[in-house]
């Protein structure tokens, strides 16, 4: 069953340099670096993110970056936004931001307060959480930054499916069952994903690998992480991880 939570929160840290590539962002996400610096490769240039600015990433993007610990450590917090803003906001703002616009906005006192409140609000009711999230959207819109997270009012099947996988990445997702959930046939889902340059299996693997990055923050064993991500073979999990991110799970864990 799909989660009704309007947000997903995650924390990433490290004491050594962390180079990662092809990290799928499955939902519109705000990334705030608390300590150190994130160096992002974007349109053939390098952008640096610290505590002064947010990285705003729409769904379906692949990020290549290096987390630099600085003097002590690297630490960042992420807000995955699972409930979109009102559609009329997106329709009014659609096309207002160029694809060349840097994916960042300065952190104002108002934005910082809303981020902190939302990040710490899991005990609130769903309705209260959603209203807080809409307040954040309104503030971002006033800063002309909402379009960076939601460049279009139309959501692709790829983005909807990756967000569906992200609720339970380790579950044995079967194409027949998932396509039924999305009210389409198996063949239709395959065809539509192919038109969006992906496949059911590849998208599921990518979501699982990003989930693995989060699990590694909890100091779990590699076998435990592999099983939690739906892999019965530790070696197959490690091979897929390295193929996607460019380093082995053990190499990544050594940076934590």
TrEMBL record:
The keyword Metal-binding does not apply. SMART domains: HTH_ARAC (SM00342). Keywords: DNA-binding, Transcription, Transcription regulation. The keyword Zinc does not apply. Residues 159-255 form the HTH araC/xylS-type domain. Gene3D superfamilies: Homeodomain-like (1.10.10.60). It comes from the Bacteria. PROSITE patterns: HTH_ARAC_FAMILY_2. This is Helix-turn-helix domain-containing protein.
